[in-house]
Design a protein that fits this description.
Elements: H1 2-25, H2 48-51, H3 58-76, E1 83-84, H4 88-96, H5 101-114, E2 122-123, H6 126-147, E3 156-160, E4 163-166, E5 173-176, E6 179-183, E7 186-191, E8 194-195, H7 200-213, E9 220-224, H8 229-232
Parallel strand pairs: 1-2, 3-9
Antiparallel strand pairs: 3-6, 4-5, 5-8, 6-7
Helix pairs in contact: 4-6, 5-6
Length: 233
């Protein structure tokens, strides 16, 4: 009889503890990992640390599970960030420091967190950064080309020289062709196109394209290059 009475007292204390704490802890439970049978509440198999946060009944527990799932759904469906972080100056700085699009994502996120800015509100991903940087380079190139005037040009000298340089998007080397014109004491870089092949034909096509884009076809009076086979073909 003594054992039965002690067991009943322990059970009452256990139920009181569960009733007192279930509202605070019900949201932390996983529905699939909890069994609502009364055997789980036995003092012989459950310790105090395991039962402090158990709900009183399965009905009350299930009602809390519904509220929790609704809260999780609200967080999951949060809209994507819409605040543009990229600017022309930032894009130029990334290019000057030779920072890849993927590394730029890590740097921008780290800086935003250091400045206590909510990262989820920002548009920060590799594709958007890559797209903005390409557009920024195109706008900058067009502005330079518009400011360049051919009216004061007399006779220009065309310079080019193929170089093997590291690709901007990887560690492999690619054929680059710097194209420069000089006129008296001034000079202008027309471009440094990447060539699929370092042949003389590919170089000639790239040079012709850049001269056409800059409107310089009728101004070239001399050419300057080294004596490699591709340049003299």
């Amino acid at each position: 009889m003594r054992k039965v009475k002690d067991k009943e007292e322990r059970q009452e204390k256990l139920n009181a503890r569960k009733k007192r704490h279930y509202e605070q802890c019900a949201a932390t439970f996983n529905k699939q990992s909890i069994d609502f049978s009364d055997d789980d509440f036995s003092d012989e198999v459950a310790s105090t640390s395991e039962i402090d946060c158990l709900p009183v009944s399965s009905t009350e527990y299930k009602s809390n599970i519904i509220d929790t799932s609704q809260t999780q759904l609200t967080v999951t469906n949060k809209t994507r960030g819409r605040l543009e972080i990229m600017t022309a100056k930032l894009s130029s700085a990334l290019d000057r420091c030779k920072i890849s699009d993927r590394d730029a994502v890590h740097i921008i996120i780290a800086v935003a967190e250091a400045l206590k800015v909510e990262v989820s509100d920002l548009v920060v991903n590799r594709s958007s950064i890559k797209r903005y940087r390409e557009q920024s380079r195109m706008v900058l190139a067009n502005n330079i080309r518009k400011k360049f005037s051919t009216s004061e040009l007399n006779a220009i000298v065309l310079h080019w020289d193929g170089k093997l340089l590291l690709d901007l998007t990887g560690k492999q080397t690619v054929d680059r062709l710097p194209i420069v014109i000089t006129n008296n004491d001034s000079e202008q870089l027309l471009g440094v196109p990447k060539l699929l092949q370092g042949t003389s034909k590919a170089q000639a096509e790239a040079i012709y394209q850049h001269l056409s884009e800059w409107g310089l076809m009728d101004h070239v009076k001399a050419i300057c290059f080294d004596t490699t086979a591709t340049n003299t073909d």
